[in-house]
Design goal:
1439 residues; alpha/beta; single chain; 61 helices; four-stranded mixed sheet
């Protein structure tokens, strides 16, 4: 409980309350952001007294301003006020002994619970700036903002652009009429509180206060004012009616009077300061005698300008030693007519005192001894401006936390910051990240792309995630138990998410995982020719899968992760896609809602056609990702004023002119502002004046200052002024490496003559704000600084420096050793790039770039023009080949392509010379391979054709031929791919006929069968695997041609398969993926063309044995072919589903995402057709679609079509399956139009199959036959696939039903053909037995053989039950019921319909069950109480 007390200022000063108690305003307002960027020190006794005095002065000044609101006061009042004594000033406050309590005006002021009648509380002081809209009063980010602006270890040399958040607080009136008797309620005046008695007499007097009771209290200030006018009781209303003829006091005199009152508040001895005339205080004080050396030892710069009119009052106050410098300046400017900067209004006074009260560490307290030895003033170390952007980012992070807490299915969130260079994007993201990391326990990761090394974008990403794992390792080794527990759970979660094959793959990318998880099998020495992790085409998806799985494992835990990627405009297109796909992967997983991705880019350096904008647009269209764009505009005048005011510790009124000039010259460009201010300090245009005890400048000189058009001129000026030359040389060397450099690299260069004097000194460069040092990494404070340092050098100087650096570094490697595909590890010195922290190097750091790669890059930057010697050019081309091979081994194909291009440029005049022919071939092959990996079709054609059209023999062009054919296949140019591929194969003596007629195909298959019969396949596993490069190239060409043939339904496919089988048999090749695929395809055509399931089964089993005995890793594509196109005939459909799901898992581990997605699709189709409970099928659809929608648009379309059929069966009408296609298509007709316009035969087939299924299950058999005929017209529909069985099965039922309904005799023949086909299948494919029986029953029914038909119906029902096909039991009962109803055996028909209804309900086909109920008029008894179905049952497919 707080006590409301009123006492005089004299009583306060006489007590020790001001120096021992904490005073606050009636309402606490969080405005500590600005001061939060300065180190806060617990105030000592004097500082606390000064702070409390400032707060009291603020209330007094506001009261005085309100009293003098007309702008002047009468001479009578002036004379009265000049005689004011501290006992005439009252202070009203509430006190409580509990320092944590808050005393509010609503609290009862005595034991009886009666509320106080004290005057309304004074509103807290608040900074108000022009043209600013205050945020809402319920903002929850006050604490967050305070932390964001707190001083960080990495805050040096950062652009200060953050301004305080402000909000208006309505002001309430003070005690009116200056505390006269009319101001105090008479009943209140008679009350007694503790040791304080409020008098009842008209003349206020107080008892002596018990000083002990006034110490160590928390006091809430209510109001302050003057007890009364001692010469004449004049009320406020009366005073405001002063006659115009009555003489009045000027505004300046009023401010002088207020100055005396404030001086009274700050006086130690409570003695008033006499107000003298201006003439009495105009004496000059000698400059040299105005201050001691100790007073200014912390400021090395001394102003060039001597004061012309120094204030004697200011000097006197300073010399007294009783007041802080800020108070001396305040009083002098208020009371001295010849002061340096006299006040013009009361509001200026109030604003000065507000700054002191709210942020005393900046504007009130003098610098202590520790601060006096600190570095000189340097702008850019603290953050200003961007209040709304910070608030928005904090809102996003808070919303993400709330969504995770509430279990919302919202996806991940992305914030995109755009702006020009130097606008503060990086610092904004870093400040928010620092707060989330230190204040909210987030894991925050940063990555920055460099304009100088854009080909190394992959290394930036790899290092980012290796850093993430290193962070977990540091937590595990730390002393904070919460971190230790989290890291252990993280290690366990990662172990669970990866298996014995994928965890070593992750370790290849992020070696730090070895320090987190024990026992990882190091597969780095495994033969990569057999590894699924080898090969450019799969590396992209492989890395996406690994990163997504790693993040997913961590995001399931209780900590949030923020990833910030800076300068995305310099990131290569493939890595942009990788980032997008990873975000999609996280967003589609409902359990991973703890990721915030922040990306920054320069909007003025890209256009709408750039890869970044395309990827950003893709993100924005994805409904599972919440994208927020923030554009950082220029700093306002208020932002700059606040920056200058805070850094110089001066009131805004004193810096407003300087702020306006800076804003005008820089247009508010953040980096330009900082550099301009620092340049003014460097040349002493702005300098510290010991006499004025502040920074000072000549306003006229500043306004006339000539600056360049942009920040570049200032940066260049700063750099060129550096002394001695060795420092500039060090900077030049650093700029050659880009934005950041390892200190270890610089130390290595000390052994050379490149650094002047053999050494380097970075301290002065850090002090100048040019460099930062983070752990073992040297970073330019901004990439613009690096750019201008680099551009100061002439072109020749840059080229020579690059060449010298590269040549020297190469001496530390084996770059000049043999180039013949020697393993890059042999003798190669690695430069380990650390994570920028202070952790010791334990060998876990990821080797981002080898020293060889760095040396080669330096040579490439020197350029062909500088290196004219032919021998040296060949030598450097070899270096590029070595570096390209190293990059390919790390799956960094952008870097590999970069090195290949440069290597070829060095050989431009000698490409196919005998001395360079082999090197040129290798460079071209590597360039074509890298081009196909990064999706650069033009590059593939350019480099492959350079070999094909060159002077080399045919066999040496096979690698290039293979790459060119593969590129054509991936582009969808199937006709061109097949034509070129067949031409190459014929040159390799493959006997492939030119006319693929049916007779030719059957003859080729017979020949292949005859040749195969001469081989013994019993000991395949014992056969040695020796595949020559020529053979492997031939098989890879065949594989590409086979894929193109299948996708285009080319008749050459069986011929290619026959040729491949014969080639594999003749050369003893049984263990490579291409051979297995060819055996599967040959068996497939045995089923398709020969209708020989037994032969197909034989070849399928042979291919299966080849997969099981293969050395190394089995082909995902071959597995998908085997289980998705062949073996499903011969094994139970549920086993096919299991094998296909396993194939999907292997494909995701290998990075063969295309084959994995088709395997997953086939697995789901097996469930759908195979009679699995539809509730399970629906749940699996949701799960599978998460992966398929991310990785394959083509498969997504086909799966959506099956979901349409699923919804119809389950009776779901409030779900739109097409929504997953992101608005590209909204119905089946749109998909069909798209398929026809692109000539996508397989999608056309899928659309017609979906329409056929819909018509069949709803009983519209005429439409079903129409769609079936359309299907039959497509060549691809006759090829043996799983849905061929069901299309044929359902078509037979439709044909016989329509025949019995009188729709044509030809339908009987169609049905008989289906019966013949399905009966043939059932002899080998045992799970089709019930289907053959049902079609036979329909045939007998059509022949009016009632008893035989019934027998077959019942046999079909029993067979379906035996195979677990609940849905086909229901279908057989329904067909049987239709038949008996048609021959007027209604009871039997009704019984069958009841059973059909029961089966459909158990299957989960509620829509189909309701159709039976509705059409057959089944009642509650008929359906055994299952007529009424709840909405939950409908949605989930439950009975």
């Amino acid at each position: 409980m707080g006590e409301l007390i009123t006492l005089t200022l004299q009583e306060l000063l006489s007590s020790t309350c001001l120096s021992k108690s904490i005073f606050s305003f009636a309402e606490d307002v969080d405005l500590s952001e600005v001061s939060g960027s300065f180190k806060k020190i617990e105030p000592d006794k004097d500082q606390l007294r000064h702070l409390n005095a400032a707060k009291i002065s603020l209330l007094l000044a506001k009261s005085f301003r309100d009293r003098c609101s007309s702008g002047s006061i009468s001479e009578i009042e002036k004379k009265s006020l000049e005689k004011i004594h501290p006992r005439d000033i009252f202070v009203q406050l509430k006190c409580c002994s509990d320092l944590n309590a808050r005393c509010c005006s609503e609290e009862p002021n005595d034991a009886t619970g009666v509320e106080s009648d004290a005057p309304p509380s004074v509103s807290p002081p608040y900074a108000r700036y022009e043209h600013e809209s205050p945020p809402s009063s319920d903002s929850s980010f006050g604490v967050a903002l305070e932390e964001i602006f707190s001083e960080q270890a990495d805050g040096a040399n950062q652009v200060g652009e953050m301004k305080t958040l402000t909000r208006e607080v309505s002001q309430t009136s003070n005690i009116s009429d200056w505390g006269t008797q009319s101001d105090i309620n008479n009943e209140q005046l008679g009350r007694s509180k503790g040791n304080i008695r409020i008098p009842v007499s008209n003349v206020m007097h107080f008892r002596t206060i018990d000083q002990d009771n006034m110490c160590n209290l928390h006091c809430t200030l209510i109001s302050a004012g003057i007890v009364g006018d001692q010469s004449n009781d004049v009320s406020t209303s009366q005073s405001s009616k002063v006659s115009h003829t009555q003489s009045v006091c000027s505004l300046s005199a009023g401010i002088r009077i207020l100055g005396k009152l404030i001086h009274t508040v700050f006086s130690n001895d409570a003695q008033p300061l006499p107000i003298e005339s201006p003439d009495a205080i105009s004496s000059e004080v000698d400059d040299a005698g105005s201050t001691s050396d100790s007073d200014t030892s912390f400021l090395p710069r001394v102003s060039k300008y001597r004061r012309s009119n120094d204030s004697a009052l200011f000097s006197s106050l300073v010399d007294s030693g009783h007041y802080p410098i800020a108070i001396c300046r305040l009083l002098s400017d208020m009371m001295d007519a010849e002061a340096d900067a006299p006040f013009a209004t009361f509001d200026e006074v109030i604003h000065d005192i507000e700054q002191m009260s709210l942020h005393p560490e900046i504007f009130l307290h003098d610098l202590d001894a520790a601060s006096c030895s600190s570095p000189s003033l340097l702008f850019g170390e603290r953050y200003y401006g961007r209040a709304s952007e910070v608030t928005k980012m904090l809102e996003i992070s808070t919303r993400l936390e709330q969504l995770a807490q509430n279990g919302s299915d919202q996806g991940s969130m992305e914030t995109v910051l755009s702006g020009s260079a130097g606008s503060g994007k990086t610092h904004l993201a870093r400040r928010v990240g620092n707060f989330l990391s230190q204040g909210a326990g987030w894991i925050v990761l940063e990555a920055k792309f460099d304009r100088c090394t854009d080909h190394q974008s992959l290394e930036v990403i790899i290092l980012l995630f290796d850093k993430l794992i290193s962070r977990l390792v540091d937590m595990m080794r730390g002393s904070i138990q919460e971190d230790v527990d989290y890291s252990e759970r993280a290690a366990q979660s990662i172990s669970n998410a990866f298996d014995s094959e994928t965890l070593p793959a992750l370790a290849n990318f992020a070696p730090s995982i070895h320090n987190l998880i024990d026992g990882i099998d190091d597969n780095s020495n495994r033969d990569k020719k057999h590894s699924p992790y080898f090969g450019g085409e799969s590396s992209h998806w492989k890395l996406i899968v690994l990163i997504s799985r790693l993040l997913g494992a961590l995001l399931k835990l209780d900590r949030f992760i923020m990833i910030c990627c800076d300068d995305l405009q310099w990131c290569d297109s493939q890595i942009l896609t990788l980032i997008n796909e990873t975000i999609f992967s996280i967003a589609h997983d409902g359990e991973r809602r703890r990721l915030l991705f922040v990306g920054t880019y320069r909007h003025n350096e890209i256009d709408d056609s750039s890869p970044l904008m395309a990827n950003l647009s893709h993100l924005q269209r994805n409904k599972s990702v919440n994208v927020t764009e923030l554009n950082l505009s220029s700093l306002t005048i208020n932002d700059i004023s606040e920056m200058v005011s805070n850094e110089m510790r001066l009131p805004r009124r004193l810096v407003s002119d300087l702020a306006h000039v800076v804003h005008k010259k820089t247009s508010g460009h953040a980096l330009f502002v900082v550099e301009l201010l620092n340049s003014l300090l460097r040349d002493a245009t702005v300098a510290y004046s010991p006499l004025k005890r502040r920074y000072d400048w000549d306003p006229d000189k500043v306004s006339r200052l000539k600056t360049g058009n942009d920040v570049a001129s200032l940066i260049i000026s700063k750099i060129t002024s550096l002394k001695p030359p060795a420092i500039l040389r060090t900077l030049s060397v650093l700029s050659c490496f880009g934005f950041k450099t390892e200190i270890s690299l610089l130390r290595l260069l000390q052994e050379s003559s490149i650094l002047l004097g053999g050494g380097f000194n970075l301290e002065s460069l850090v002090e100048e704000g040019i460099l930062e040092i983070s752990g073992s990494v040297i970073v330019f404070t901004h990439d613009l600084v690096q750019k201008h340092v680099y551009e100061i050098l002439s072109k020749h100087q840059r080229q020579k420096l690059h060449c010298d650096i590269g040549t020297f570094l190469a001496t530390k490697t084996n770059l000049d050793s043999s180039l013949a595909y020697k393993p890059i590890d042999d003798g190669m010195e690695q430069l380990y790039i650390c994570h920028g922290d202070d952790t010791e190097d334990d060998g876990s750091s990821n080797s981002v770039l080898s020293l060889a790669g760095i040396a080669t890059s330096q040579i490439n930057k020197a350029g062909l023009e500088f290196i004219s010697d032919r021998t040296r050019r060949i030598r450097f081309a070899g270096w590029n080949m070595r570096s390209a091979n190293e990059s390919r081994e790390k799956s960094n194909f952008h870097a590999a392509l970069y090195y290949c291009k440069n290597g070829l440029s060095f050989l431009s005049d000698n490409l196919w010379h005998i001395e360079t022919c082999q090197l040129s071939l290798e460079l071209h092959e590597a360039a074509a391979s890298a081009s196909i990996a990064v999706g650069n079709a033009e590059g593939v054609a350019q480099y492959a054709n350079a070999i094909i059209d060159g002077p080399l023999e045919f066999e040496k062009s096979l690698v290039a031929q293979n790459l060119l054919i593969r590129s054509l296949e991936t582009q969808g140019l199937y006709t061109e791919c097949i034509a070129r591929g067949l031409a190459v194969l014929r040159q390799l003596n493959f006997d492939i006929p030119t006319a693929p007629t049916p007779e030719v195909v059957l003859q080729a298959m017979a020949q292949t069968t005859n040749i195969a019969s001469q081989y013994n396949f019993d000991h395949i596993s014992d056969r040695p695997e020796v595949i020559h490069q020529k053979q492997r190239n031939a098989l890879r060409i065949i594989d590409s041609v086979a894929v193109a043939c299948y996708l285009s339904t080319s008749p050459y496919l069986p011929l290619v398969a026959c040729s491949t089988v014969i080639y594999s048999l003749q050369h003893g090749i049984f263990h490579c993926e291409e051979s297995v695929s060819s055996f599967v395809i040959f068996g497939y055509f045995k089923v398709y063309l020969k209708q020989n399931l037994d032969e197909g089964h034989k070849w399928g089993k042979l291919a299966h044995r080849m997969l099981e005995t293969s050395r190394g890793y089995a082909s995902v594509r071959a597995r998908m072919y085997l289980y998705g196109f062949l073996l499903f005939w011969f094994i139970p459909i549920k086993e096919s589903c299991l094998r296909l799901y396993e194939t999907y898992a292997i494909g995701m581990r290998c990075g063969d995402v295309g084959s994995a997605m088709y395997s997953l699709f086939f697995a789901w189709v097996c469930q759908f057709y195979g009679g699995e409970k539809l509730s399970i099928v629906k749940a699996n659809y949701k799960e599978y679609m998460k992966s398929i929608a991310k990785y394959s648009e083509d498969v997504s379309k086909k799966l959506v079509l099956r979901k349409v059929n699923l919804n119809e069966l389950m009776g779901i009408s409030d779900d739109n399956p097409y929504s997953v296609l992101e608005g590209a298509f909204w119905d089946i007709d749109g998909l069909l139009f798209d398929a026809k316009s692109k000539g996508d035969i397989h999608l056309i087939e899928a659309v017609n199959m979906s329409k056929f299924l819909s018509a069949f299950w709803r009983g519209d058999f005429l439409k079903a036959m129409e769609f079936s005929n359309e299907l039959m017209s497509l060549p691809s529909s006759k090829m043996p696939k799983l849905h061929l069985i069901y299309h044929t099965f359902y078509r037979g039922i439709v044909a016989f039903r329509l025949f019995r309904e009188g729709n044509g005799v030809s339908l009987l023949k169609d049905g008989e053909d289906v019966l013949s086909t399905v009966k043939a299948w059932s002899e080998t494919c045992k799970w089709t037995e019930n289907k053959a029986l049902l079609i036979e029953a329909e045939y007998l029914a059509s022949k009016c053989k009632r008893n035989l038909a019934k027998e077959k119906y019942e046999a079909s029902i029993q067979s379906a039950r035996d195979h677990g096909f609940l849905h086909e039991q229901g279908l057989a009962y329904e067909c049987m019921g239709k038949y008996f109803s048609s021959i007027i055996e209604l009871p039997e028909g009704r019984r069958c319909f009841r059973e059909a209804h029961r089966c459909y309900m158990q299957w989960g086909a509620l829509g189909k069950a309701e159709q039976i109920h509705r059409e057959q008029g089944l009642d509650v008894t008929d359906v055994n109480g299952n007529q009424s179905v709840s909405k939950h049952e409908r949605e989930e497919g439950l009975v």
